[in-house]
Amino acid sequence: MKGETLLSVRDLRVYYHLPQGIVKAVDGVSFEVRRGEVLGIAGESGSGKSTLISAIMGLVSPPGRIEGGQIIFEGRDLTKLSPEEYRRIRGKDIAMVFQDPVTYLDPLFTNGFQIAEVYEAHEGVKPKKVLDRAVQVLKMVRMADPERRAYSYPHQLSGGMRQRVLISMGIAARPKLLIADEPTSALDVTIQAEIIELLMDLKKDLGMTVLFVSHDLNLLAEITDRIMVMYAGKIAEIGPTKEVVNSPQHPYTEALLGSFGFERKKKYPAIKGYPPSLITPPPGCRFHPRCPKAFPDCSKREPRLIEIKPGWRAACLLHES
Amino acid sequence: MTLAKYVAKRLLQAIPTLIGVVLFMFILIRMLPGDPARLIAGIEATEEDVERIREILGLNRPLYVQFIDYMKDVFTGDLGTSIRFGTPVIGEIMERLPYTIQLALVSEFLAVILGVPLGIMAALRPYSARGYLATVFALIGSSMPIYWMGLMFIYLFSVRLKLLPSSGADSPSSIILPALTLSLLLMGNLMRITKASFQEVLGENYITTVRAKGLSERIVIYRHALKNASVPIITIMGIQLGTLLGGAILTETVFAWPGLGTLLIDAISYRDYPLIQGIVIVFATMFVLINLIVDVIYAIIDPRVREQLWAAEE
User: Fold this and answer.
1) From A108, A153, A169, residue closest to B213, measured CB to CB
2) What homologous superfamily is domain B89-313 in, according to CATH?
3) Given CB 3.0 to 4.6 Å as the disulfide criterion, which of A199, A250, A277, B125 pairs with A314?
4) pLDDT, tens digit (0-9, with 9 covering 90-100), for B18-76
5) B216–chain A Cβ distance below 8 A for any pair
6) Any CB–CB contact under 8 A between B228 and chain A?
7) Is the confidence at residue A278, as pLDDT, over 80?
8) Which chain A residues are closer than 8 Å to B210 by Cβ?
9) Topology (CATH) of A5-93+175-269
10) B261-289 tens-digit pLDDT
11) What is the ipTM of this complex?
12) A18-44 as b/e, with b when 16 or more CB fall inside 10 Å?
């Protein structure tokens, strides 16, 4: 059913236990993903977006640990699953497209074999026996000459073609939820547009729900239904794309919008400073040291997510006063 | 370019290498002090006797004539006559070679079946008790002097427990102690390389991809990680086997193992030129062969190497 909740993340906390201290990479994040939508997750590196998707994929490994909260997918809390139960979901119901086509493909196996491994994982078939299905998936991602490419190795392909192989692995089992982690940031601008278009077409054809992670808010503005902005392990703002982009309610969202695109640069100040340390985050609002609108209270009180309108929330003390 | 063609080409290329080795050895040995003719004749022999022996052996001819003659013989499979034994060198070598090959293969096999799994285990659980234990074990194995470890094994298993023969190669169980001693040394290095290589590969992004597809850890480790980590492991195995086939001189001496190592020591102390030359040619040939085998294995494992090697041969 379109519009119903597919994935619900509740008060999720993922910490890394390092010798220097505890890194609270994801610190109390709650949101929902609706069936059929494209939800964008935006944030700088270090905002916790990568850790968040690792947690949804069940791929958090030591020194990282899920400290609390729930990840409810189709009514099941994934954090309670055994490794084997999680394995059966991973790559089948929830799949992922990685960002760097060079390092995310194993150089020693053919492209077709690596795609066919998805069927091995979930149907128990030998990859070599189902290479024809890998060819079919390569056709779906509009790979030129798919039969030949299935039998060639990653290093024999261009960056754009490798990204198509990575997408093939993501969609091979026709997942319900596809997580795309900056799938175009390593590609040439011309190819970026093609890949984005392909992903959006696949989403429609296969009826997938998409979590699209990017630091580029302007890209997300074009392709997503809703946007979630993360800062220092927390949600800064979440809401319908159009509204968030047109009238951002969090100074950090404004700043992110200002980082890209000439038009917006005039309207919003460039973002200053660096993301904070997550071992000893700033007191109060974590963004206040970099915030152009900060006032004394910001370093004392931690903002809650305040509803601006139904379905649109922002965590800024400007809305609490 | 097929694999067979590549191998054939490499074998042809090995010939100049081997000729170079023979020439080098030939010159080097003749620069050594000591007169083989005098050694054969004995200290009390007259100068005429020594001269006659020199003539019989051809040692009084110019060096280049000796070398050309020798090369001709080598290519017909005749490595000359041993000065000490008076028998064909090739015969002496062929008698010892099986022992050296046997010891090398058994030790390397033991080292691999112990060292590689221990290395994988240490890489997967670096901070566990088992991981530490494996690392310490490897360190001890690779840092003990081989003659000391050999003597300790002889003391324990032969003298005290009287379980195994201490020397020679008279019974099938004779190989156990020398092979065990050697394999502990080899295993230490293999284990460390395996651990380092595995740790590096397990941190690679493509391993995350394999997990994200929903494949089991078994496939992550034994298909993707093992294949990617195997190149440095095979490199070390190649070097180890090459060294072992050159005769594990210390081990063979400690256990009186009748391999090429002990034969070489004898040959050197008797200034048995033909025998020394023969043994070195055999070593060099085996080294070349092992290098070729290792290169072929690289090519089988890694398609990028395959392309490079075969493209370079065109």
Assistant:
1) A169
2) MetI-like (1.10.3720.10)
3) A250
4) 888 888 888 887 777 777 777 777 777 788 888 888 887 777 788 888 888 888 888 88
5) yes
6) yes
7) no
8) 106, 117
9) Rossmann fold (3.40.50)
10) 889 988 888 888 888 888 888 888 888 88
11) 0.89
12) eeeeebbbbbbbebbbbbbbbbbbbbb
